[in-house]
Amino acid sequence: MIVGTAGHIDHGKTALVKALTGIDADRLAEEKRRGITIDLGFAYQPIEGAEILGFIDVPGHERFVHTMLAGVSGIDAVMLVIAADDGIMPQTREHLQIVDLLGLDRGVVALTKRDLVGPDRLAEVTADIRNLLADTSLAGAEILPVSSVTGDGVADLALWLQLASTETRRAAKGRFRLAVDRSFTIAGAGTVVTGTVFSGSVRAGDNVLVSPSGLEARVRGLRAQNREAESGVAGQRVALNLTGPRVDKDAIQRGDWILDPAAHRPTERIDVHLKLLKSEPKAIRHWLPVHVHLASAHATGRVALLEGETLAPGEEALAQLVLDRPLGALSGDRFVLRDQSAQRTLGGGYVIDPFPPARGRRTPERRAWLDAERAADPAKALTRLLGVDPGIVDLTTFRLRRNLTPDEAAAIEKDAPMVAAGAFGFAAQRWTGLRQQTLDALKTFHQKNPELPGLQVEKLRQAMPVRLPVPAFAAVAEVLVRAKSIVLDGVWYRLPSHSVRLQPDDEKLWARIRPMLGAAQRFKPPRVRDIGNEIGVPEVKVRGLMKRLTRMGQVVEVAHDHFFRTQAVAEMIQIADRLAKASADGSFNAAAFRDKVDNGRKVAIQVLEFFDRHGVTIRKGDIRKIRPDRLGLFGRHDAA
């Protein structure tokens, strides 16, 4: 268990941690000189019959609230420290507000300096504290009078912590995420980072990413709860010895995440559930500039209200945080907002969707989606999302947003009321409707165009009464093809009952031409004029046949009067893709492509320009990159 302190400056937080552990958490020379805590301090205490307790000691001065926030975001329990002589002070209130906003409901109040006051004062302050806690997550928390000087009450506090530690154990669910609060170098070891493990587990040898920078690293070794360990798990403070080509202490800073590479997707827009503190003097307005604290990270940004133009004190609403720099955030993460001058805590809440769409953030449909997604249990959220129009869930993003491992995702999706198609889940009723609408669209097209082979995927998508996103519709079509409900001929989708045949004269002419576009010549077929000259057929007749074959999906006109078999075009796309994947930056040039297909520079350039026009490649100068979502545009041909 990790315990965080909270409370006003000079109320004895550090002294109390030392009384409990024997460790002085003030580690900086300036802290010793000034007699105040200015950075996070750490201490550990073995507990008989329980795991080691970790303590995070935070500054109490108002100027260091941002540091306090970095320390308490991942703790399991809070030790709110209030001096019996001073009683409740400004930072007592603000720290308690932060604890409440972070949803910390396990805690104890240490009423320090009891040796300086009499029974009446002790009773008075205790009553004040109970009233203060009444409307917070710590309502009903035990209040234990202690003295770090005499030791009075310290044993009772230690017993409370021991009992709490046996009841507090986070499940090591989800992918690994550690919020960094320190980064430094140890001679002979290299770069070391410390922080709280929010989820999952990590072992020596694991490959990890630093987020949001995307820096790759490997875990050379680790310590958990201040001891050498084979692994670190959620709910522990962990020190990771990291190694990598660009890894050093300056490349990793407080506020970064160390995480499973699959959990990396920084964001600059976060849809949240926001609560404004009751103590605020007035309502906040849409587009208010704020400081955002999430885990150990701190960024500036603005609040875009999704419901109305203002939010009154004590009220809650949906909002979007628009950040000035990318942060790592996932569903359920807690955050705290402070005002533009960073002098006052305004409110906070929890993340609903860290990857919101770029448009339509205030529409009724979007708000309904957010209401469904805010369910804490991912299985319940998935079921609710399937019930929201249009009844389609991007499962890849859902798994990432919810930080699910593959096994966790599979268990949830197996019992969900949906039909899975590729990376999407469709509500059963929605799936039945989409299947029938696809069949009806093809039937209508065939009736109107009996001479044509069918529809390409984009035309078929546009023919649907409900316009699905491109990847979602591609997944629907793929499942229907596998089920043999529809047929994919080259690039054309059709009903199984539909067929297009050439006229007998065309069949005979195609039989003479087909070998000229065959295996040996597939990447450099002759042009229409050359075909006509070779077989003694008028050029116009050859061109007419090739145009009909193009509509049937048998050939593709790559350049004027230059037709390739559709399979050959698909094969050339796969060749270009392999060239791109073989390079360090995912690109290739025309010369490399020409050499692979062996069709001469002029023809190779024509082919690549054709790819550019159809969005298969993206060109910059003589360099091209592949668009993965367009690889199947002309079917698949996995050539050796």
Q: Would you write up a description of this structure?
A:
With 640 residues, this protein is an alpha+beta fold. The protein folds into 5 domains: 2-167, P-loop containing nucleotide triphosphate hydrolases (Rossmann fold), CATH 3.40.50.300; 177-263, Translation factors (Elongation Factor Tu (Ef-tu), domain 3, Beta Barrel), CATH 2.40.30.10; 267-364, Translation factors (Elongation Factor Tu (Ef-tu), domain 3, Beta Barrel); 375-500, Arc Repressor Mutant, subunit A, CATH 1.10.10.10; 506-640, Winged helix-like DNA-binding domain superfamily/Winged helix DNA-binding domain (Arc Repressor Mutant, subunit A), CATH 1.10.10. 32% of the residues lie in helices and 28% in strands. The protein has 19 helices and 33 strands. A hairpin with a 2-residue loop joins β29 (555-559) and β30 (562-565).
Secondary-structure map with pairings?
Blueprint: E1 2-6, H1 13-21, H2 29-34, E2 41-45, E3 53-57, H3 65-72, E4 77-83, H4 90-101, E5 107-112, H5 119-133, E6 142-145, H6 154-167, E7 177-186, E8 190-199, E9 201-203, E10 207-211, E11 215-224, E12 227-228, E13 231-233, E14 237-243, E15 257-259, E16 267-276, E17 284-285, E18 288-294, E19 297-305, E20 310-311, E21 316-327, E22 334-338, E23 345-353, H7 364-373, H8 378-386, E24 392-394, H9 395-401, H10 406-414, E25 418-421, E26 424-427, H11 428-448, H12 457-462, H13 470-482, E27 487-489, E28 492-494, H14 504-513, H15 528-535, H16 539-551, E29 555-559, E30 562-565, H17 566-582, E31 587-589, H18 590-597, H19 601-613, E32 617-620, E33 623-626
